[in-house]
Amino acid sequence: MQTESQVRSLAPETRGIGNTIRLTGWITFWLQLAIGVVSVLALLFALTGRNFVQQQNTGLGIGIFWAVCGIVVLLFSLYWDYRYTRIGKALENSNPALHPSKADTTRILRLGIVIGLVGMLLTLLGAGSTVLVLIAKSISQPPGVAITNPYNIIRAMDVFVAVADITGIAAHYVGTVASLWLLERVHQH
Q: In this structure, are residues 47 and 64 in contact, taking their beta carbons and an 8 Å threshold?
């Protein structure tokens, strides 16, 4: 059993790491939300633009699919960021019985890293397929001004799919870096 002085000496360290986890959770939450909104808006522009054109490019459909999958994982990542704020708040509590264990905190942070990596993988698949379609369209255009096949025109909505994927990668990167940094801080504690 710990004496009163040991509990008091541990409390500032625990409160400090709790404050770090809580603040990092909120910062990551808002950064990922802002970048995610940009990704969703770019994807909405691409989807609404596809509805106005009779000629559909089926190659971009797979990029859109992976972008949507990345956004779904991003929503779960936002929930996980909010969960970090609750863990930080619990660690700041003066009642040690409410503190999560170091093992539980580490497990939650590692799962946050996995969520970010899965999200990056999904959006990288989308970005890769979208860029391949854009490269194929640009290579198939003859040199000069005349375009013989209207399917080979690179339209703005095609680029919006690439923007949605790239901003999705950035959002997941922010979450992964924050989780890695927090894991390092918890291990140093």
A: yes
Domain span at 158: 8-188
> Does residue 3 lie in a domain region?
no
pLDDT digit string, tens, across residues 144-178: 666 666 667 777 788 899 999 999 999 999 999 99
- Asked whether residue 2 is domain-assigned, the answer is no
The dihedral of CA 133, 138, 141, 142: what is its sign?
negative
The total of structural domains in the chain comes to: 1
What's the predicted TM-score (pTM) here? Answer: 0.84
Residue 7, amino acid: V
Other CB atoms within 10 Å distance of the CB of residue 141 = 14
Task: Read off the pLDDT band of 6 (50, 70, 90).
Answer: very low
> Does residue 76 belong to any structural domain of this protein?
yes
93 burial level (CB within 10 Å; 0-12, 13-18, 19+): middle
Rg of the chain over Cα atoms, rounded to whole angstroms, equals 22
Q: What is the 3-state secondary structure (H, E, C) of 83-106?
A: HHHHHHHHHHCCCHHHCCCHHHHH
Q: What is the pLDDT of residue 136?
A: 86
User: DSSP letter string over 129-172?
Assistant: HHHHHHHHHHHHSPSSS--S-GGG---HHHHHHHHHHHHHHHHH
Q: Is residue 112 part of a domain?
A: yes
